[in-house]
């Protein structure tokens, strides 16, 4: 089954709602167009879940984590910018958006908390950004996991998700580095690439959406350096997080 | 002098830089377009200042207020969403953005701190959102200021700004209410309108940009209620703040 087409078809019933950029156009008819999300993929009442590590977490308030759409539970990173944009652009659809990223997580740690932090929420859209710690912690935290385990764990997590949530739309976000960042050394370019490639291959294998963040940041670095987009090379700046949200919107919605 | 055209002309030198949506397009060539700000109005090294009351302030960290572009000093409201979007979309232009809104401010209080919190920053773009407290505090805080004083103070502030900062681009943001909000009663619709009208008339008088936030929220209320866009009718929600940022981007940039 091509689940992406399935989702698109099932969401058509909610497509009559006019997206918020049209509100802005109506209020400001004499100036140029703003962003233009179609929103065809979000059915009324849909739940969106953002999952991952510190990049997703970004200081979210865990006490509020059951309060969908609350700003504090979305944190201060790309999850916040996605949430704000989705809610502004799809008013009237009664969407729910949650951030359940946890700083430091590797893919096996997502799996450990997946029932509580994914399946139980019954999401219609699940976005996953994971992988940088699966590599990084082998260098800094004496973590012994391998690329083979990372791939097996990630594949099992996806299969489990699809089985538990028929019709779910899954977006695999490419783990990335921002070249020139202070936490990176010369080994990252070659040694981290397999982790990116696994994510991309799994997206293809399961016919899932793929958000090519590495390509996004590579393009971004033509305009400004890592200090601008993410000083340590792993955690995006505000500008980097906003850029991620724009890319995510384009790829997923 | 038509200062808006002046600014556009003077900014042409910086227009060769490609805006960030093109980065997203380059990285994601197979999907639909994202937002498409022209950015022709922002010259290299330009300073943008956001000024106003609690709506602008939105919990900003005053300790960091001299650190341009720092997320904490931008707060958690529309200023943050404007800042993130501007920096993501205009990388390489070395822009500086500051939030100097202060909760509770009326126009005379902006004037009291205008040298320190505007003129001294030498901004190229100044965005002002003020007026709701000039009315609200007459109802709740025993404030004795009148609409006549509001208009005179606001006109003097604008004349002073234009004199001190030749070539500055000023955006007058319309003060607004979100109909149905809990802090509003039936008197607001009629009695607050003159404050909105003064802001609009002053923008016309000085040939400044006008951001019609009341129209934006009136349109938004066709899609969802005040609980969604700003529960108390004065302070926008996350979705409301994002909507403001989208409108601001469209009107100002």
**Dominant shape of chain A:** globular
Order of helices and strands of chain A: HHEHHHEHHEHHEHEHHH
Relative strand content of chain A: 5-15%
Strand tally of chain A is 5
Give the biggest beta sheet of chain A.
5 strands, parallel
Biggest chain contact: A-B, 52 and 52 residues
Radius of gyration of chain A: 18 Å
- Mean of all residue-level pLDDT scores of chain A: 87
Oligomer: homodimer
Low-pLDDT regions of chain A:
1-25, 30-38
Query: How are strands sequenced across the largest beta sheet of chain A?
Result: 2-1-3-4-5
Helicity range of chain A: 40-55%
Roughly how many Å apart are the termini of chain A?
A: 20 Å
- Helix/strand-derived category of chain A reads alpha/beta
* Discrete helix count of chain A: 13
Tell me the layout of helices and strands:
The structure is a homodimer of 253-residue chains.
Chain A lengths: L2 H9 L9 H7 L19 E6 L1 H4 L13 H4 L3 H12 L6 E4 L7 H6 L1 H4 L7 E5 L2 H9 L6 H18 L4 E5 L13 H19 L3 E3 L1 H8 L5 H4 L8 H15 L1
Parallel strand pairs in A: 1-2, 1-3, 3-4, 4-5
Helix pairs in contact in A: 5-13, 9-10
Describe the structure.
- 2 copies of one chain form a homodimer.
- With 253 residues, chain A is α/β, with parallel strands linked by helices.
- Chain A has 13 helices and 5 strands.
- A 5-stranded parallel sheet of chain A has the order 2-1-3-4-5, with helices on both faces.
- In chain A, helix 5 packs across helix 13 (238-252) and helix 9 packs parallel to helix 10.
- The radius of gyration of chain A is 18 Å and the shape is globular.
- The model of chain A is unreliable at 1-25 and 30-38 (pLDDT under 50).
- Chains A and B meet through helix 2, helix 5, helix 11 and helix 13 of A and helix 2, helix 5, helix 11 and helix 13 of B.
